[in-house]
């Protein structure tokens, strides 16, 4: 988990030599999802989701000022050594030293950038600007696709970001759209590239090409003068909604195969059977970096259908495809999507299923077309047309136009109640097309605003479905504009539902101008996969039939350790907890949830906060064995209240009171 530093706790920094100066070496750890975020946007290498620590330690401003000086020096030195390598065909001793200073161990590959503390922000930005800037200029000076590919693959392997075959696979899948962006955005500076990818205070974005766009907001809203309150208690006539998310079905999963392989996805047929049986994949899944076998996908869907026949409808919030991100294809993704949607159709024959797309559904992973692009082979239309066809059995015909346009839609569920299903994967910081035309992100958000305005005028209440939590990995300008829309229509939006993080968690939104007021809550359904260190789960929400606000939810899970001991029996699902019962809330309104947060942020609330974390990881044995100390707990508390990358006010407020 991401660790937040409190003002009372100093940041321990190792040293990393930039030129002849010593600076923080904390940025060595990285997980490479499309490998090497530093070279990322230049050659199609990408790390996993990045979301730098929001709580700034004492001295952070001075630290950033020092980093800014080191960036210039490091970028210049790497550039000199890189050019000499390309000119002479031989790496100098100094260039190898620079590479060695950031090489990571196989164990460190399992980290995600979002799990790194603030002290690592600067070094990562420096690496990105150094190595990434060199590759950017290499292409602009005339390097061919093959030359960029081979250079990036060699650096990826030397840095031990992934095994050489995974490096080559990731680069090959991503290099063409990224070269297209570089070639068609000759003015794109490496500083802006790194700032978009890393989105941290140490890698600041000062580029109006990325930040100047905005959504046109209807001016008839009212100012926020209090937290939104008044949600009813759970009642016998509440609607019942089942959320299933992040199944990550892996057709290549094989019981007994290597679960400790070091790749982004393990337990796969190509990775062989390990000598140590303890490293073998379990029959129902694995806590390590493994996705979900088909028998477990079937079981979670069947269990939700069997145990909740009175559910009114289903929210399926994306990420069907596995984490084998170095070897996806359109055909591969289509087969998995078809198989899962057909299973949902079979198990819920008489219930509406509202589907949205996850970042893994695209090919390459995360890459959703934005703006006017002249290459048809870069289009995401194959996925949008497939989705329109597969989802049509559950949706009115009027939804087809926007699904085929961009994978999003709205549907009137019943008089007075509407669902808006977003495809907010376009805002993911590893969607390369943000770098090409960032203001294209405005289009879907403006559509969202306009639909909400119509709903407001019609007296409708709305649920918003989107795969990415707004707090998690969305481009900061998109976050800013979404918050503006949400705040304007806070009385129309009754609830939001997300996936992506694989955690059973929630987020609270506060007024931008006066963050003492809570205006909205977003719920996360966890994951059907156990990747990584969580139990599989689904969530059942109880929703007031007049206000359509969530009055309670129950999370259902099974213990993966126990399930794998009985390969021939279905897992024993259990109700993990009722949110309302567990935390004794007055209600689940933004005001009621804010009261809980304030309680969790005091020393007296530490036991409750510990329980929140345990449920967040879904009582998974692997996570419970690691534990979560006080700094870790503060981190998770801060994640609840943070919804914009450059807004740390609520997190800082909680931190000031956390240690008493």
TrEMBL record:
Reactions catalysed: a sphingomyelin + H2O = phosphocholine + an N-acylsphing-4-enine + H(+)
Cofactor(s) the protein needs: Zn(2+)
GO MF term list: acid sphingomyelin phosphodiesterase activity; hydrolase activity, acting on glycosyl bonds; metal ion binding
Compartments it resides in: Secreted
Positions bound to Zn(2+) 1: 246, 248, 319, 502
Enzyme class per UniProt: hydrolase
Designated name of the protein: Sphingomyelin phosphodiesterase
């Amino acid at each position: 988990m991401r660790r937040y530093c409190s003002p009372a706790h100093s940041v321990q920094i190792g040293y990393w030599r930039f030129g002849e100066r010593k600076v923080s070496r904390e940025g060595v750890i990285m997980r490479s999802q499309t490998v090497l975020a530093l070279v990322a946007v230049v050659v199609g290498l990408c790390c996993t989701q990045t979301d730098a620590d929001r709580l700034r330690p004492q001295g952070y401003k001075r630290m950033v000022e020092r980093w800014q000086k080191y960036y210039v020096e490091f970028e210049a030195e790497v550039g000199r050594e890189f050019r000499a390598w390309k000119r002479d065909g031989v790496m100098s001793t100094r260039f190898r030293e620079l590479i060695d200073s950031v090489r990571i161990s196989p164990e460190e590959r399992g980290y995600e950038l979002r799990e790194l503390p603030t002290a690592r922000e600067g070094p990562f930005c420096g690496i990105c600007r150094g190595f990434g800037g060199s590759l950017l200029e290499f292409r602009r000076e005339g390097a061919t696709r093959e030359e960029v590919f081979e250079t990036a693959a060699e650096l990826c392997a030397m840095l031990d970001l992934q095994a050489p075959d995974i490096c080559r696979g990731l680069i090959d899948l991503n290099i063409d759209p990224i070269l297209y962006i570089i070639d068609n955005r000759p003015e794109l500076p490496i500083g802006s590239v790194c700032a978009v990818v890393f989105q941290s205070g140490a890698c600041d974005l000062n580029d109006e090409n990325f930040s100047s766009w905005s959504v046109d907001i209807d001016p008839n809203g009212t100012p926020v003068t209090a937290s939104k309150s008044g949600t009813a208690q759970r009642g016998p006539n509440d609607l019942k909604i089942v959320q299933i998310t992040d199944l990550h079905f892996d057709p290549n999963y094989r019981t007994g195969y290597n679960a400790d392989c070091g790749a982004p996805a393990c337990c796969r047929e190509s990775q062989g059977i390990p000598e140590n049986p303890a490293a073998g994949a379990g029959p129902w899944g694995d806590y390590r970096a493994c996705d979900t076998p088909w028998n477990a996908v079937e079981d979670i869907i069947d269990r939700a259908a069997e145990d909740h026949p009175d559910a009114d409808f289903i929210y399926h919030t994306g990420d069907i495809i596995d984490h084998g991100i170095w070897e996806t294809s359109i055909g591969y993704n289509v087969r998995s999507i078809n198989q899962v949607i057909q299973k949902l159709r079979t198990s819920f024959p008489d219930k509406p299923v509202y589907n949205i797309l996850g970042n893994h559904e695209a090919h390459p992973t995360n890459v959703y077309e934005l703006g006017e692009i002249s290459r048809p082979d870069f289009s995401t239309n194959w996925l949008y047309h497939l989705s329109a066809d597969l989802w049509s059995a559950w949706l009115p015909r009027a939804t087809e136009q926007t699904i085929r346009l961009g994978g999003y839609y709205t549907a009137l569920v019943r008089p007075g109640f509407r669902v808006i299903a977003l495809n907010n994967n376009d805002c993911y910081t590893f969607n390369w097309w943000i770098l090409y035309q960032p203001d294209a992100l405005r289009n879907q958000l403006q559509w969202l605003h306009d639909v909400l305005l119509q709903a407001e005028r019609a007296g409708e209440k709305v649920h918003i479905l989107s795969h990415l939590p707004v707090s998690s990995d969305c481009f900061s300008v998109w976050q800013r504009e979404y918050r503006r829309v949400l705040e304007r229509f806070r009385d129309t939006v009754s609830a939001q539902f997300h996936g992506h993080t694989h955690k059973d968690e929630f987020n609270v939104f506060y007024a931008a101008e006066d963050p003492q007021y809570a205006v909205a809550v977003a719920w996360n359904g966890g994951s059907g996969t156990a990747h990584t260190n969580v139990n599989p789960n689904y969530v059942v929400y109880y929703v007031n039939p007049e206000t359509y606000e969530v009055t309670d939810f129950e999370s259902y899970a099974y213990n993966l350790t126990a399930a794998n001991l009985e390969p021939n029996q279905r897992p024993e699902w259990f109700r993990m907890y009722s949110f309302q019962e567990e935390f004794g809330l007055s209600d689940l309104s933004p005001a009621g949830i804010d009261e809980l947060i304030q309680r969790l942020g005091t020393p007296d609330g530490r036991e409750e906060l510990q329980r929140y974390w345990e449920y967040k990881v879904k009582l998974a044995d692997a996570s419970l064995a690691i534990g979560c100390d006080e700094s870790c707990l503060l981190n998770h508390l801060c994640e609840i209240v943070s919804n914009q990358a450059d807004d740390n006010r609520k997190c800082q407020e909680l931190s000031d009171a956390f240690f008493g």
